[in-house]
Design brief:
alpha/beta; Ubiquitin-like (UB roll); Rossmann fold; 3 domains; six-stranded mixed beta sheet; 6 helices; elongated; POTRA
C-alpha cells in the first residue's frame, strides 16, 4: 500500500512539473511572438511593399508615399495608421482615405480623390472645383473637358455656386462633356449652354435626376430646340 501511495504521489508531482513546463513554454512562445510582431524587423514596413491607389487626377501619389514611407523600418503593429490617415487627409485633392496594414511588411492606401467638375474664373486664372465646391487646383486656361461656371467666388454667391455645381455633378458623363458654360444669377436660376449652342434652364438643384432624364429625352425628340426649360420637369418647355 505504501508503495502505491508513493507511486501516485510521484505521478502527481510529475504531472505538476509537466504543467509548469507547458505553461512556461506557452508564455515563452507568446512572448517571442509579441517581440517578433512589435519589435522585430521581420514584420517591419518595407518601402517596396507600400501600395497607393485611387489618386485620380488631383492627388500627388508620390507625396502620399512619402507620408507612408516615413515609417519604413517600423514594425507594422507599432505604426500609427490613424495619424498617418489624418496626415494624408490634409493633402490637396484627398476627399477620404483608408490606411490598412498589409502583412507581413506592407501598408495599403486606398484614396478617394476630389475630382474637378468645373472651372471658375478667378482673375487671370481658373480655379478648379469639385462637386462640393472644394478647390482642387488652378489653371491659366480652363481644361477642355470642364464647363466654365460664371459665378463669382464670394460669400454672396455661395448658394448660387453650390446649385450650379450640383447641376454639373448630376450630369451623366456624355451630357457633362457637352456643357460649355454654366451660369446662375440665384440658386434657383441655373442655366447651362451646350457646345452646340442649346441653352438648358434647370431652375434650382431639386429633382435633378428627373430633370436630367427629361433633358436627355428632349435632346432626342426636339433636336431643333434652341432652349430647353426643365425648371418644372413635369411641364418642360422647348422653343
Amino acid at each position: 500500500m505504501a508503495d502505491r501511495l508513493a507511486e501516485r504521489s510521484a505521478m502527481r508531482r510529475h504531472r505538476s512539473w509537466r504543467l509548469v513546463v507547458a505553461v512556461v513554454l506557452v508564455l515563452a512562445l507568446l512572448g517571442g511572438a509579441g517581440w517578433v510582431a512589435g519589435w522585430s524587423e521581420l514584420l517591419a514596413l518595407e518601402r517596396s511593399e507600400v501600395s497607393v491607389s485611387g489618386a485620380g487626377t488631383t492627388v500627388d501619389a508620390d507625396r502620399v508615399r512619402e507620408v507612408v514611407e516615413a515609417a519604413a523600418g517600423t514594425p507594422l503593429l507599432r505604426i500609427d495608421t490613424g495619424g498617418m490617415r489624418r496626415e494624408i487627409l490634409g493633402l490637396r485633392g484627398v476627399k477620404d482615405v483608408s490606411v490598412q496594414r498589409s502583412w507581413p511588411q506592407g501598408i495599403e492606401v486606398l484614396l478617394t480623390a476630389r475630382e474637378p467638375v468645373a472651372a471658375v474664373p478667378d482673375g487671370d486664372r481658373y480655379v478648379l472645383l469639385d462637386a462640393e465646391g472644394v478647390r482642387v487646383g488652378s489653371r491659366q486656361k480652363a481644361p477642355r473637358k470642364l464647363p466654365v461656371v460664371s459665378v463669382p467666388l464670394d460669400d454672396e454667391s455661395a448658394d448660387s455656386l453650390r446649385a450650379a455645381l450640383a447641376v454639373v455633378a448630376a450630369l451623366p458623363v456624355e451630357l457633362a462633356l457637352e456643357v460649355e458654360q454654366v451660369s446662375a444669377q440665384t440658386q434657383d436660376d441655373v442655366e447651362t449652354v451646350l457646345r452646340d449652342g442649346v441653352s438648358v434652364r434647370w431652375g434650382g438643384e431639386t429633382s435633378l435626376p428627373l430633370k436630367v432624364e427629361v433633358v436627355q429625352t428632349l435632346r432626342e425628340v426636339a433636336a431643333d430646340a434652341g432652349v430647353i426649360d426643365v425648371s418644372s420637369p413635369e411641364l418642360p418647355v422647348t422653343r
